[in-house]
Amino acid sequence: MRQRPSSSNENNFQDEADRVFGPPRFFLQLVQEQKKEAMMGGRYQSEQEIEAVVSGFENCTTSKEEFTHLSHLTVATYYLCNSTPEESFEKMRSGLLRFLEHHGINSAKYSDRVTWAWIEQIRHVCRLTNQDSSLVEIVNTVIAHLGHSRIPIERDGETGKVTG
């Protein structure tokens, strides 16, 4: 369905709403988070922090609530920096299935297609980084690029494009 062009009255209404109520709060929160990360130099400061996330995932010592989207990205990036894409996929696959089982989560929640799609997205971002970048720089770059993204699942089970 096409979106109809907005009229000048709608633009005036939006301008007035922004003037009265200010910009949307979620946007301000996102900007504040990005400024905080920029000031801190990124999410991670050391390889040990990254290795702790990977270890918590592999040993299932991280709670299901603590294993966030950013944790998924961290582990997958770590694997890609230390293994081939195929090996990284297998490590993520077996690790995620073990993690789900350990925490009593239905394994139907797991998808090979989604895991492979994320591996490909992370590889793409890694290619954009300097060849001499450290693991910390690479993981922080991946999180900056993909931390707010999602891969929708189409009705036929196929993955869609990354959104974010």
Report a brief summary of the structure.
The protein has a domain at 47-146. Mean pLDDT is 78; it is low at 1-41 and 155-159. With 164 residues, the protein is mainly α.
Characterise the protein shown here.
This protein is mainly alpha-helical and 164 residues long. The chain has a domain at 47-146. The chain is built from 7 helices and no strands. It has helices at residues 8-21, 25-40, 47-58, 69-82, 85-102, 112-128, 135-146. Helix 5 (85-102) packs across helix 6. The chain is globular. Residues 1-41 and 155-159 have low confidence and may be disordered.
Write the layout of secondary structure elements.
Blueprint: H1 8-21, H2 25-40, H3 47-58, H4 69-82, H5 85-102, H6 112-128, H7 135-146
Helix pairs in contact: 3-4, 4-5, 4-6, 4-7, 5-6, 6-7
Shape: globular
The largest β sheet comes out as: none
Report the count of strand segments.
Answer: 0
Strand content: under 5%
> If you average the pLDDT, what whole number results?
78
The gyration radius over C-alpha positions equals 19 Å
Spell the H/E element sequence.
Answer: HHHHHHH
For the terminal residues, how far apart are their CA atoms? Answer: 21 Å
Low-confidence stretches: 1-41, 155-159
Q: Helix amount, in percent?
A: 55-70%
How many individual helices? 7
Q: Structural class from helices and strands?
A: mainly alpha
